[in-house]
Write a structure and sequence with these properties.
Helix content: 25-40%
Keywords: ATP-binding, Cell inner membrane, Cell membrane, Membrane, Nucleotide-binding, Translocase, Transport
CATH architecture of the largest domain: 3-Layer(aba) Sandwich
InterPro entries: AAA+_ATPase (IPR003593), ABC_SmlMolc_Importer (IPR050093), ABC_transporter-like_ATP-bd (IPR003439), ABC_transporter-like_CS (IPR017871), P-loop_NTPase (IPR027417)
Oligomer: single chain
Largest sheet: 11 strands, mixed
CATH class of the largest domain: Alpha Beta
Number of strands: 11
GO molecular function, one term: ATP binding
Bound molecules: adenosine-5'-triphosphate
CATH superfamily of the largest domain: P-loop containing nucleotide triphosphate hydrolases
Strand content: 15-25%
Pfam family, one: ABC_tran
Number of domains: 2
Radius of gyration: 18 Å
Structural class: alpha/beta
Protein name: ABC thiamine transporter, ATPase subunit
Distance between the termini: 34 Å
Length: about 230
């Protein structure tokens, strides 16, 4: 269980409160108006920001003070964050050896398997700049697969892709998450993504990240904040 217990975060006029629990292996969409704090919520979970109050627990372990690399979280950003001067195999190798050390033969095979898994077989020697946007997204997902963390945080990772490609990537994320048994948290501006991908939704609005609600129920009986967001 990922538990956000009495989490409070403030920055000037902006504030966010979160008191919620998310089950391992679930797929959760994080939706809400622009500037409401969706990315902030993911940053708090991944450790890129620290709360002013409250505790974060994963399977009962307090991770509130842990730095990002010591958390059970792999993050996929829209920018992909691949190193431009390293080829794909070396970029992905960093997931296994963050110090940049040489990979063993079995680790190299693991990298190749991850490339195969996301449909990039044989492209290990390409630099990110020689890949399309969709291929870069796939490479970033292969890195998440290699990191093998029990929580995957996605911050609008596929917003720049066309609808068909985005659908393909969401299906791929679903497959990768299932393989890892990972809890997925995905920020999206598109309610259709939530419906297609997520069993539950966390609505972030009016300074609060609400407890998760089943996606079908949320859209059938949208609360006031969601109706405003959807323009209904
Ligand atoms: N780098 C930054 N510097 C200063 N303020 C920031 C920065 N990033 C975000 N904020 C502010 O923090 C608040 C929360 O932003 P956050 O990015 O978490 O919202 P969001 O719901 O993810 O928005 P969006 O949907 O537009 O990405 C907003 O008031 C925003 O203006």
């Amino acid at each position: 269980m990922l538990t956000l217990e009495g989490i409070r975060y403030g920055d000037g006029a902006f504030s966010l409160a979160a008191d919620l629990r998310l089950s391992p292996g679930g797929r959760v969409a994080v939706i809400g108006p622009s500037g409401a704090g969706k990315s902030t919520l993911l940053d708090l979970i991944a450790g890129f920001r620290r709360p002013d109050a409250g505790r974060l627990l994963w399977q009962g372990r307090d991770i509130t003070a842990a730095p990002p690399d010591r958390r059970p979280v792999a993050t996929l950003f829209q920018e992909n964050n691949l190193f431009p001067h390293l080829d794909l195999a070396r970029n992905l190798g960093l997931a296994l050896r963050p110090d940049g050390g040489r990979l063993r033969a079995d680790e190299r095979r693991e990298v190749e398997r991850a490339l195969d898994r996301v449909g990039l077989q044989g492209l290990g020697d390409r630099k990110p700049g020689a890949l399309s946007g969709g291929q870069q997204s796939r490479a970033a997902l292969a890195r998440v697969l290699l990191q093998a963390r029990p929580i995957i945080a996605l911050d609008e990772p596929f917003a720049a892709l066309g609808p068909a490609l985005k659908g393909e990537m969401l299906d791929l994320v679903r497959g990768v998450a299932k393989e890892l048994g990972a809890l997925v948290l995905m920020v999206s501006h598109d309610p259709e993504d939530a419906k297609r991908f997520a069993g539950e939704v966390v609505l972030v609005a009016d300074g609060v990240a609400a407890a998760p609600v089943a996606t079908t129920r949320l859209f059938e009986e949208p609360p006031e904040a969601l109706r405003r967001y959807l323009g209904r």
